[in-house]
Amino acid sequence: MKMTHMKSLYQLTFLPGVFPVNCYFVEEEDGLTLIDAALPYSAKAILEAAGKIGKPITRILLTHAHGDHVGALDKLKETLKDVPVYISERDARLLRGDVSLDKNEQDIPIRGGVPKSLKTREDFTLKDGDRAGSLLCISTPGHTPGSMSFLDTRNRTLIAGDALQIRGGIAVSGKVRLLFPFPAIGTWSKQVSIESAEKLAAYDPAILAVGHGSLLQTPAEAMRRAIEAARKY
Known about the structure:
7-stranded mixed β-sheet; 6-stranded mixed β-sheet; 25% helix; globular
């Protein structure tokens, strides 16, 4: 596991040279917010990283319910029994393995590794505009119908889950990058993903942090190019 620290953000990367999967700590005065839970074997390293930082984990936020973002959740909750879990109301259904669509959603199958045997359930659900510590919660559907992103309002660090990828070249979810096609393969709606990426770009983030790839500083121009490329695809 590789840990990268930038401002209030700690990026924890598993399998960095092969199939990089990121989860994040956002440091608050009273503790750490964990964003996503990486892979099933990641729990020990996540807990050890919190110990090195020297602060307790006080909440767990999930960008979406794919297996490489909730993989260690059950194991983490064995230790963090009283730490609340937050996810969008829409993706809470995916935590239960429910891949049915709402009437107002595009009739496209939900793709990606939806968990089939996860025991942990959410304590709270999130909607657009909610706050979690220093984080503004932003609804960014597309990769899944209920995907969320989180903006640190202190320094404009944006944790965007799989709304975009950086590994293999920056791209909006659904736009295939041949060097790393997996986020695109797991995307529900390409068109909705573009709309969400445009929404995120309007926040003019100072740092972009995603589920797959390195941290990107001053990402505005790169995000603009990625959105334009996705529109043409």
